Amino acid sequence: MRNIWTVCRRELYSYFVSPIAWVLLAIFALLSGYFTYLITGYFVQASLQSQMSGQPMPMNLNEQVITPLFSNIAVIGLFLIPLITMRLFAEEKRQGTIELLATSPIHDLEIVMGKWLSAVLMYCALLLVLLIDYSFLFLYGQPDWKPVVTGFLGVLLEGGCLLALGTFISTTTKNQIIAGAVGFSLALLLWILNWTTSFGNSPTVQVLGYLSILSHLDSFSRGVIDSKDVIYYLSLIFLGLFLTTRSLESLRWRA
Amino acid sequence: MIQVEGLSKNYARTVAVNNISFSVEKGDVVGFLGPNGAGKTTTMRILTCFMPPTAGKATVAGFDVFEQPFEVKKRIGYLPESPPLYPEMSVADYLMFVARLKNVANSEIKRRTEEVMERCAIADVKPKLISKLSRGYRQRVGLAQAIIHNPDVLILDEPTSGLDPKQINETRELIKSLSGEHTIILSTHILPEVEAVCEKVIIINKGKLVATDSVENLKHRAGLNAAIQLQLDTAGNGNAEVVRQTLEQVPGVSKVLEKTVSSDRLVFEIEGLSDRNPRADVARAVVNSGWNLLELKSLTFSLEEVFLELTGSSAEATVANGKGAAA
After folding, report:
1. DSSP B230-251
2. pLDDT at A194
3. What would the pLDDT profile of A81-121 be if each residue is shown by its tens digit?
4. Per residue in B126-155, is it b (16+ CB within 10 Å) or e — as a string?
């Protein structure tokens, strides 16, 4: 446990003394802020129109602002998460510091967990920015807070998957650009897998739909914790961390 | 302290280390000598559990590098060829990170960090970022990193490569000062470095063990066959031809070569027989003939020459010799 924290702490140090963390925070704040502005803008416009039309429609802040906002945040995540993970191992390999880790009395799994945990905490720091956006919704409206909590849990789990997969990709190369590009492509692919639904309901389409990473997020942002979705995310995190550990081990054999 | 038996390492198509065996006693300072690509780094990486051997066995402090890597790693301090530094960290933060990584007790971390910074003369750059340090300082931070958990064994891969002469000296002094408490293996391709720091030498070439011997023996062995350069002034008493003939008469001289011949000085290169060094006899012969001896020196032997000696035409005999010394 101490080893995991040692590795994690050093990674966080690197994120926050280098510009990476601050640049990511700035980008995220800008994009999530703009999305919040857009979606609440639509909401305000729609509510005005529904009042003017004489037959007011039921307006719901949770359904019409918070749920779409979470999906948009998840999409921003697809772009930013590869930027968080791409350096994790590629940088160590390029700098030769991997030799320090590999010759220290620490298990490969501890290295992997430490790195992944630091990436998750970095991602959490991004999500904290979102909390500022949401605080305005709470300030001027009365949304239900429970779907907000489950929504955060959802994007956290979804981010955890992509972070685990991105960490794995980072072990396969010395080049951060490659790690970032491959990570981004994979994230994009996992997102658009369910775009086949219009093709009908064949088993392939169903499987692809199930594998698609964002399709499991909807229930969370509606306030539902579905075990099917939790299991999907947890197993993907497990898969990513497992592959990372094996890949790290194999470096010794292939070196 | 370190036992290596029949160690081999193959990469995809190349054999990096081929069946080498040696042992290092507790407290020894051993130079691991070989040209680039000889397999030094590979051997060190196996000893530090960075990679497993293809065949053979290596134990450090009684623990097998393959079976019990954890126990080995706890007892080894390793400085790879390029020091494993995080450029964005400050020196003190980096060393505290390594201390934690090497399982130094929490209460000891601060003290150990201060200690090694004092030891490696880097206390003055403590708050600086590693990326701002000069090469010499980086190398010393690398060394500090290797000794922070007070390991029994120190493995240093080319600790002086890329440093300027002053830094090389400082690094050597530092390594020497560490030699009391730690068993040290350091790799190098510079022979004087071995002379300056080590007591024992392991020479490998193309993945094979060429010789293991003490520095004294090696110098002796290489020195015997090294040429002597002689500069003299005949003082009008005989010419170059006479001098040459006189020198060839000297017992132990096998070959005399004229290098420079001018009116006031003659320079010769003399090769001795392998079993005795004729320097004293040459000097006496010159003086007895009434010539002025201006200079007499053993031509310094470079590693290349030692290698030619040990791996060249007389390879068979020398390798046998080396094995005899190792046994």
Report:
1. EEEE-TTSS-HHHHHHHHHHST
2. 82
3. 999 999 999 999 999 999 999 999 999 999 999 999 999 99
4. eeebbeebeebbbbbbbbbbbbbbebbbbb
Whether residue A252 and residue B100 make contact (CB cut-off 8 A), yes or no, is no
For an interface test with B, give the residue of A4, A22, A104, A107 to mutate (most B CBs within 10 A).
A104
Q: Is the pLDDT of residue B294 over 60?
A: yes
Give the pLDDT band (50/70/90) at residue B173. confident
Give the model's pLDDT for residue B191. 75
3-state secondary structure of B43: helix
Average pLDDT of span B235-248: 80
Tell me which chain A residue has its CA closest to the CA of residue B151: A104
Q: Residue B270, SS3?
A: strand
B102 contacts in chain A (CB < 8 Å): 104-105
| Distance (Å, whole) CA B188 – CA B219 | 16
CB-CB contact of B248 with B256 (8 Å)? yes
Contact B73 A3 (CB under 8 A): no
8 A C-beta contact, residue B141 and residue B133: yes
CA distance A82 to A90: 12
Interface of B with A (CB under 8 A): 45, 48-52, 70, 73-74, 76, 78, 80, 82, 84-89, 93, 97-98, 100-103, 145
What chain A residue is nearest to B74 in terms of C-alpha separation? A105
Q: Do the chains contact at A99 and B78, CB–CB below 8 Å?
A: yes
Q: Select from A97, A103, A252 the Cβ nearest to the Cβ of B86.
A: A97
Q: What is the DSSP letter of B53?
A: -
Q: What type of residue is B252?
A: G
Mean pLDDT value across chain A = 91
Question: Least CA distance to B72: which residue of chain A?
Answer: A105
Range of the domain at A8: 2-254
Of B50, B52, B101, the CB nearest to A106: B101
Portion of chain B with pLDDT greater than 70, in percent: 87
Domain made up of B2-213: CATH architecture: 3-Layer(aba) Sandwich (3.40)
| pLDDT given for residue B323 in this prediction | 38
Number of compact structural domains in chain A: 1
Residue A65, classified by CB atoms within 10 Å of its CB into exposed (0-12), middle (13-18) or buried (19+), is buried
Instruction: Domain B227-298: give its CATH architecture.
Output: 2-Layer Sandwich (3.30)
Domain boundaries, chain B: 2-213, 227-298
pLDDT at residue B235 is higher than 80: no
Which of A14, A102, A253 lies nearest to residue B88, judging by beta carbons? A14
Query: What pLDDT is recorded for position A11?
Result: 95
Q: What pLDDT sits at residue B321? A: 40
Per-residue pLDDT tens digits for A184-218: 999 999 999 888 878 888 888 888 888 888 888 88
Of the spans A82-86, B116-120, B185-189, B241-245, which averages the highest pLDDT? A82-86
Of B76, B82, B100, the CB nearest to A103: B76
Identify the pLDDT of residue B305. 63
